[in-house]
Amino acid sequence: MKKIIHQLLPFIKKFKKHVVFNVLFNLLYALFSALAFISLIPMLNVLFGQTTTETTAPVWTGLSDIKNYGEQLLNYKVSGYLDSGNPQMALVIVIALVISTFILKNLFGYFANQHMMYLKNGVLNDLRKDMYQKIIKLPLSFYSKRQKGDVMARILGDINEMQNSFFIALELIVREPATIIFSLIFMFSFSWKLTLFVLLFIPFAGFLISRIGKSLKSNSLKAQQESGKLISIVEESLTGLKIVKSYNAENIFSNNFTNSSNRILKLSNKIGIKNNLAGPVSEVLGIATIAVLLWYGGQLVLVENIIKGTDFLAFMGLAYAILTPAKAISKASYKVKNGMAAADRVFEILHEEDTLPDLPNATVLNGFESELKVDNISFKYDDDYVLKNFSINVTKGKTIALVGQSGSGKSTIANLVTRFYDINDGNITVDGQNIKNVTKKSLRSLMGLVTQDSILFNDTIKNNILIGKPDATEAQIIDALKIANAWEFVSELPNGIETNVGDAGNNFSGGQKQRLSIARAVLKNPPIMILDEATSALDTESERLVQVALENMMKNRTSIVIAHRLSTIQNADEIIVMQKGQIVEQGTHTQLIEKDGMYKRLVEMQSFE
């Protein structure tokens, strides 16, 4: 708990004004909660004829004697009306005192809740925003071994769990203890014996409740982890719905979902059983205490005459005022354990280190002047090297093509020159500057990436293309669409560039999606273009249209083309043939055909496809 509060402090400090006002109004609420029961005493005295007669008006002697002054002044006013035969007016005064006390109590409670609401919602909003910023800044390697559903569960479910449970502790941290303290002060003024008896109850109840809730946090953590798996199953099912249906695999995925959902059900029931015990246990202990208190206090009133009956009734009210917040604290302690498990998962992401940070003195690349050089690099994702002693030079204005069988390391080059991953050995430089020594933002601003999977976002065509250049004009967008060979179909749409592309761009065909992706890269207008098998997933007709778009885009531009279909790269300035992470051949298309080696065999194999 202490550790999590410490981690939350930077977020809470931003809203310290609300913290101060919340504490102030909670203290006032606690004070008037206790005074509300004290204010009943004058009314009970009037009803039972036990008002102390005061014939002279009290004299103000200072704040140190405010309690006696208040009692004497009230008794003086009330006894005056009673003596003059006007008990109705005496009742009006004492009832007005009770009502005003309860109104002030609830008013201060309202103000305290308002400031807590601003604090809680503000902190959770900042947490959510910081977590999203962290998620999109972490390198791709972070996600290679994680389920997307688990990350989604943390930013959605776990932060909501913190709101529903952990922040209850912040609401109670001042109000309930202060209510108990003020109540105890007034109770001691009535009878120290009765007060000590009530105090024996609280540690006993706390011990029982802590025993019941011991395993809550671990069960909550398991439930939250399982929720992440459940979201992953849903996300994967929707993403791959065509495969699920075409292979009649609905039962497999349905069983996976059912099993995960059942595990959540069992864990939720375990948590719920213990949560539900908090109320009844504290209630039973409270009633038992009140029952014995009535027996013991009744003797002090009826037999020993140590305490007045009206004072005892007010004392019982104060005892109840202690047991209610004590019960609230016990219930909150259960929910806090759920929130702590959620907070641990949230802060695990927030504290995750970026393994590819910009250096403190990283320089900014302002343009591309001469060459991109990959110098004798080696790289591995896990244990086995994907690239070994690999070198290429990409001179400005030239097109370099990388070809080879699947798994030869072609796409890895795209991941490394854009610095999605860091190399293990060697250097990658742009105009002589090591990319590790420059800012990632300036490096990537020089590059346009078109991947095999046409990644579009559920937004308009216009907004998808503007990702490349947010300040572009509509005319520039249309020019980019024309270069990408996409304007022919976009112009015929009823809403034109304002048409929504649908989830993952599924309102369009594969070739149309790819041309929109190319338009996005064209609009960005980067000096270096990286095409990662941009046509391999397309049919022949779409490939032809996309190929024309790519050729338009690559004019007067430096390009690295990773190709599966060799017909698309025959005009490249240099073709590099890769096998198992190493270069086995390089040269122009004509030179490589003449060599009669691997490249020629790849071309011949594809000519029969």
From TrEMBL:
Membrane topology annotation: Multi-pass membrane protein
Residues covered by the ABC transporter domain: 372-605
GO MF terms held by the record: ABC-type oligopeptide transporter activity; ATP binding; ATP hydrolysis activity
Ribonucleoprotein keyword on record: no
Transmembrane annotation, as ranges: 20-41, 89-111
Main location: membrane
Cellular component, GO annotation: plasma membrane
CDD domains: ABC_6TM_MsbA_like
Signal sequence range: none
Keyword set, alphabetical order: ATP-binding, Membrane, Nucleotide-binding, Transmembrane, Transmembrane helix
Domain ABC transmembrane type-1: 23-338
Pfam families xref list: ABC_membrane, ABC_tran
Protein's cellular compartments: Cell membrane
SMART domains assigned to the protein according to its UniProt record, in alphabetical order: AAA
Protein name, per record: ATP-binding cassette, subfamily B, MsbA
Organism: Olleya namhaensis
